[in-house]
Design a protein that fits this description.
The chain has two helices and 22 strands. With about 230 residues, it is mainly beta.
Length: about 230
């Protein structure tokens, strides 16, 4: 028996025994292994029996499936291989067995975000952010979507916030500009810059034009709230 351990950064999230010839992986609720993150497609990839071992097959995912830093379509797995899906990874243990099937299935709770649109992740920016974390911590913006916390890692040197469909962080509302604010990487962390218009940009309830961000700060734009914290 083999198993996969779902990781978010360095933190294990769940374990899954490979007890079927095909195991679907993705954000949708009908997947065998549910990965609850908008950077993961609804049906991202499949783990398939491959002779005496296993292989991973990409399912036409938006952000791609990576093994050993290489984007793959199909890859035979070796013990210890890490399958990377955006901010999540699946670690392959050729001789492992999941401790609790019930704990794994608990990840398929009623609030999972399988119906939301996939958020695109720039893999080059992800690698850059992982190599150069701010103050030893990888920072992110946390927002509410579908009643759940969605973690948006600050991968870019400059992250846009606004009403535009292509904004990195969506902030919808009356008179919100396509890009209402930007979060820029700074030497000691990140800075928030408001870009004018009718809507105020606030940090912890205070209107700002340009301000450094501290861990735990809450950014508010037209009723949209975002928290700045480690990913």
């Amino acid at each position: 028996m083999a198993k996969l351990t779902v990781m978010f950064g360095a933190d294990p999230q769940s374990e899954h025994s490979l007890d079927k010839d095909q195991m679907k992986v993705g954000r949708a609720m009908d997947c065998d292994i549910v990965v609850d993150n908008l950077g993961v497609s609804r049906h991202h990839c499949t783990i398939v029996k491959d002779g005496e071992g296993w292989a991973v097959v990409d399912g036409g995912s938006n952000n791609g499936t990576y093994v050993g830093g290489t984007k793959i379509q199909k890859q035979t797995l070796k013990n210890g291989d890490r399958i990377v899906l955006g901010k999540h990874s699946l670690v392959y243990d050729q001789h492992g067995f999941a401790a609790s099937a019930a704990a794994a299935s608990a990840k398929k709770g009623p609030g999972a975000m399988g119906g939301e649109m996939t958020m695109f992740v720039d893999q080059a920016q992800l690698a850059k952010a992982m190599a150069a974390e701010v103050g030893g911590k990888r920072m992110a913006i946390v927002l509410k979507q579908g009643g759940r916390d969605v973690v948006v890692p600050l991968l870019k040197d400059e992250t846009s916030v606004g009403a535009a469909d292509n904004a990195d962080i969506p902030a919808k509302g009356f008179l919100v500009k396509p890009v209402q604010a930007k979060i820029a990487r700074a030497q000691a962390g990140h800075r928030l810059t408001a870009l004018g218009g009718w809507r105020a940009v606030k940090v912890n309830g205070q209107k700002v034009v340009d301000a450094p961000l501290k861990q735990g700060d809450v950014i508010t734009i037209a009723g949209n709230s975002f928290t700045y914290r480690p990913a």
